[in-house]
Amino acid sequence: MPARGANTASDASSSASSTFDRLLYGNQQTQSQPQRPGFVIEEASPEDEAIDPGYTTWARPFTMSARTASASLIPDLYTSLPLIRDLLNTQTSQVQDKTIHECLPFLSGAEANIQQLNAYGVPHLARKRHVQFLHKNLRKLPAPYVAADASRPWMFYWVLAGLHALGEDISEYKERLISTIRPIQNVTGGFGGGNGQMSHLAPTYAIILSLAMVGGKEAFDLIDRKAMWKWLGALKQPDGGFQMAVGGEEDVRGAYIAVVILTLLDLPLELPQESPAWSREGATFLTGLPEWVGRCQTFEGGISTKPDAEAHGAYAFCALACLCIIGDPHVIIPKYLDVPLLISWLSARQYAPEGGFAGRTNKLVDGCYSHWVGGCWPLIEACVNGPSSPGAGPDTQSSVRSLYSREGLIRYILCCCQDQSKRGGLRDKPSHSSDSYHTCYVLAGLSSAQHKWHFNASAVEMESSGTLSSPYQWTSEIFVEDSQIYDEEDRVRTLHPVFVISEGAAEEMRAYFSSKGGF
Amino acid sequence: MAPKASKPPKAQPEAPEPPREHPSISSLHQDLYQSSRPFLTLAQTKGISPLTPTEKSAYAKSRFLETGVWRTWPAPQQKEFWAAVEKQNIPIPLPKPRDLGKDSRGQELGTYTIEEYAQYRKRERQLQGLRRESVRFRDRREKIQDGEVSEGAVEDERNRRKLIGLLQGNRMGLYEGNPEWDDVVPIPQDDGEGALAQIAYTDEYAEAMGYLRAVMAAKEHSPRVLTLTEHIISLNPAHYTVWLYRASTLFSLQSSLTEELEWVNEVALENQKNYQIWHHRQLLIDHLIPTISPDAVKALEESERGFMTQMFEQDGKNYHVWSYRQYLCWKLDMFNETELRSIEDLLRRDVRNNSAWSHRFFVVFSDPKYATQGSKATDGYFEAPQNQSPWNYLRGVLKKGGRDLASLEWFAGEFVKIGEGEEEDVRSSHALDFLADVWIEKGENAKAVKALGLLGDKYDRVRKNYWDWKRAGLKEGGVGGAASKMEALKVGF
């Protein structure tokens, strides 16, 4: 049965074998030729192929140890090599094989360090250790952390969002968060990476979201909204996008973060007159923005950091979340993006046996894409299903429940991403150390896989409604499956599908500023 | 136990101990103190009444000496007093030794050996002299107009401060020790009370950042700012503020941008994952291009391509380098054969390098000159048919050219045998996916349903939900099905 075997070069040479260009640009007569010149650069017998010595060993079906034999409910999808494999050896295939090899023991329950598996062969969420790990990241950090000196506010956000997902009360950090953030704000608007650093959208995003999560008048009043509005004006570009800092790079992160700030702080959409994008015709912060985001979709279907670059998972989330702030998902996403192509690309980011997501075509699985790619699904599913009407059951016949494998993702997260040592925390893959970034986004991905989000067309009518009110119409419920592979105690809390913070926090912040009226 | 007072004194005060070895300066001081007051100590330990008359007399004289009361006496009486003191050989009592304090490292000076302490005192005297000189230098410079202090005097002062640092035992900060920075008062970092995730900076980094904050606050753009920013970048290359401020300083000084590019190359090679370097480079190129000849632009294209090739040797998928490359293609009009050949070299090395595929698509289709032509013949792209990159590329090319997927049905079919009466042989799930779309396009739904079923149940099971969703749309066929929804979504695009 050849289907099970790996593809070899000699197979290829005897089959489809035109040059790429003839394929695409003419010489159509080749279509009728059953035999074509060799596809390989040199005719090579399979014996001549340079095959990684390790490869042949891995090619054998993975055998489970006696210990794991009881965990009979692990589908072979997650314990064996992919059905179709090419033998051509390149750097990409080498690191991919190495990664599979690294993950298989964790996925099949053969890893000795994992103490307890449930009936589905899945370890528990080491909640207590992850909580401790996150707390530790807000304590005094040693000198090598100087590399994070310009991105320190991210740690506040990652830790707080992660702790919330794990069910912790984060209010103990409220006062210190406020006093830490105060000297980071610039009088010219926005926040930098630390005291005396230039304002930049990335730390500003992390800070606004952190303040939203701790909530309250004192936290909100800390933000100089008028200065923020002016600074955002300086970042807005005539082509529709946003720079990350004055004179900094323009990319799709900027597009997402700018509208997050505009909506959460309920800032006016008209541009300050000093803005490089200001025009007599009355250009606003949103002028040309969704079009610019649309230009970031590549021929592959995914989204790149800016027009012309390579499709990348992190930017897919930024683009979708940006659009879902500007409008309702089912209306705005199809208006600016080729949805079927995007879905196909997003879907192709999930690999087996790993189960988790990779960020780009032919790149490796990484826990953080559990959010960057995984977090796209609620937005895309809302786009495909349209709004849920209030009162109607959540899952009507024609609506799609999931477009990806929640089981695969949850298996990857619980089996491969948890640091099972005393250290705790979550990680990229087993060979990597845990850090607060991965802990936050792996948990966000887990949360998204364990819940179902609904976009409600008119369920919530915003008081001051009008602009940018779409992201406040989401509601969540527990996602129920016939056979749930994780125990109920391992379910984490929800994080908002657009803002990625505790549910309700965005609404509270927006309402506070809306009620103020003006600056 | 018998009271100690009945014992005879250990040593006769009249015959003091010979000098002995002292482990520390404070023990010497203590010893000198003790040996300067034999009769006072004797009276203190024994009481006065058991003393002999001679001892009593010596004790009284010691007290007069200690209190200094003899100074109030008339001169003849003083003379008589001193004669008696000399005769009885009564030492003059020393004041109680004071605490010597601590050195710069927090060590008690009292624990120094006698020799160490002597050296310490010598050093302190030297330091005082140097500090006085340093203050005089600053005063002098303040009095005269800018730039009047001679190079030599500045150099002397620099060396003086090095010496001060050396003698102090803790070196002066790089900027504190440099007279050229004397006009800047560093601004310390305000971290707020009980700051979260506070970083324990090294002294070197903390000092440099203090000066940067001050310089930025004064909006100073001078050559010394380039030195300062280079220093901070070497300590923390991810510091966007420093990069942006450096760029604006370079431009306002009209510094050599080619020199800057060379320096940036080194930093980039050492910091593969760095984000900021590539934006900085882009700013440099933006400023450089209008100032150089077309020949120089051509040479720049060559050297930039060479440098990126070097970067790709370490990581052929470095996202920042690729994004920069797309920018550069627009900037230098690099839509040419050399660029395509360079991409092909990378694909030959790793045909799965999707970044290279993406760039190829960009080069071929972004410039009208090449949009219809494509690249030269290259073999081997489908040698590994389960490689998704060329399949995505192929779909992209067909779409750009407005051609049906069906025009390449024969090609995808080479990797898939699932027909009636055929032995099933699928060597690429991407070919099967391609065929499914071909058949949807042609309205051959039954074949498409079979293909999607095989994908979901056998060849790409982790994506089963996706394949099933696509298939469900086909089966439903009519309005409301997933496929027709997809078509509706397409119309919007």
Write the SSE topology.
The complex is a heterodimer of chains A (519) and B (493).
Chain A: H1 9-13, H2 20-25, H3 53-59, H4 66-69, H5 91-107, H6 127-136, H7 152-165, H8 174-181, H9 201-214, H10 217-221, H11 225-235, H12 252-264, H13 289-295, H14 313-326, H15 329-336, H16 339-347, H17 369-372, H18 376-385, H19 406-416, H20 436-450, E1 451-455, E2 474-478, H21 505-516
Antiparallel strand pairs in A: 1-2
Helix pairs in contact in A: 6-7, 7-9, 7-20, 8-9, 9-12, 9-21, 12-14, 15-18, 19-20
Chain B: H1 25-35, H2 38-46, H3 53-67, H4 75-88, H5 114-143, H6 151-168, H7 203-217, H8 223-235, H9 240-253, H10 257-270, H11 276-288, H12 294-314, H13 319-332, H14 337-349, H15 354-366, H16 388-400, H17 409-413, E1 416-417, E2 425-426, H18 429-442, H19 445-459, H20 464-476, H21 482-492
Antiparallel strand pairs in B: 1-2
Helix pairs in contact in B: 2-3, 5-6, 7-8, 8-9, 9-11, 10-11, 11-13, 12-13, 13-15, 14-15, 15-16, 18-19, 19-20, 20-21
Brief summary of the model shown:
The complex is a heterodimer of chains A (519) and B (493). Chain A is mostly helical.
Q: How would you characterize the overall build of this protein?
A:
The complex is a heterodimer of chains A (519) and B (493). Chain A is mainly alpha-helical. Chain A starts with 8 loop residues before the first helix and ends with a helix. Chain A has three domains: 1-49, no CATH class; 50-112, no CATH class; 127-516, Alpha/alpha barrel (Glycosyltransferase). Chain A has helices spanning 9-13, 20-25, 53-59, 66-69, 91-107, 127-136, 152-165, 174-181, 201-214, 217-221, 225-235, 252-264, 289-295, 313-326, 329-336, 339-347, 369-372, 376-385, 406-416, 436-450, 505-516; strands at 451-455, 474-478. In chain A, helix 7 (152-165) runs parallel beside helix 20, helix 8 (174-181) runs antiparallel to helix 9 and helix 15 (329-336) crosses helix 18. With 493 residues, chain B is mainly α. Among the domains of chain B are: 19-88, no CATH class; 112-142 and 150-181, no CATH class; 379-493, Protein prenylyltransferase (Serine Threonine Protein Phosphatase 5, Tetratricopeptide repeat, Alpha Horseshoe). Helix content of chain B is 60%, strand content 1%. Chain B contains 21 helices and two strands. Chain B has helices at residues 25-35, 38-46, 53-67, 75-88, 114-143, 151-168, 203-217, 223-235, 240-253, 257-270, 276-288, 294-314, 319-332, 337-349, 354-366, 388-400, 409-413, 429-442, 445-459, 464-476, 482-492; strands at 416-417, 425-426. In chain B, strands 1-2 form a two-stranded antiparallel ribbon. In chain B, strand 1 (416-417) and strand 2 form a beta hairpin. In chain B, helix 8 (223-235) runs antiparallel to helix 9 (240-253), helix 18 (429-442) packs antiparallel against helix 19 and helix 20 crosses helix 21. Mean pLDDT of chain B is 87; it is low at 1-13, 371-378, 478-484 and 488-493. Classes of the chains: A mainly alpha (519), B mainly alpha (493). The interface between A and B is large, with 114 and 116 residues.
